Amino acid sequence: MQSVKGVGPATTAALISELPELGQLKAKQISSLVGVAPMNRESGQSRGKRMICGGRATVRSALYMAAIVAMRHNPVIRTCHERLVAAGKPKKVTIVACMRKLLIILNAMVRTGRPWKEKAATAQNDAEADIVPPRGQLA
Fold first, then answer.
1. Does 76 reside within a domain?
2. 3-state secondary structure the chain
3. Which terminal CB of the chain, N or C, has fewer other CB atoms within 10 Å?
4. Structural domain tally of the chain?
5. Is residue 63 a part of any domain in this protein?
6. What's the domain range around 60?
């Protein structure tokens, strides 16, 4: 997990100890479990803002710091953050969205057992990312 820029030993320890379900659940399920999934506050004609609630506070606080660092040093998370800021979203909303994105990336990494590959994450297609060799070439 520490191969992802922004995730250090403290975040890794918090995720391993407080979130044993990591790698076993789908993206929506894991983000709801941690408490970074947006929840609607609507009833009838009443429309409210979406907000995060519940979940595991220790994991959420560890992800917060990891997301802050990743927004500066991880190109995938930085691109997500810049896109949301350009759309006019509030800073806290963009941070929580980056936390959720980082959690989903880590969940997928644990599930597949693969380390973070920056080239693969920022590539436009699989041939660029060296995941699938170009046609006519064998790996």
1. yes
2. CCCCCCCCHHHHHHHHHHCCCCCCCCHHHHHHHHCCCCECCEECCEECCCECCCCCHHHHHHHHHHHHHHHHHCHHHHHHHHHHHHCCCCHHHHHHHHHHHHHHHHHHHHHHCCCCCHHHHHCCCCCCCCCCCCCCCCC
3. C
4. 1
5. yes
6. 9-41+50-113
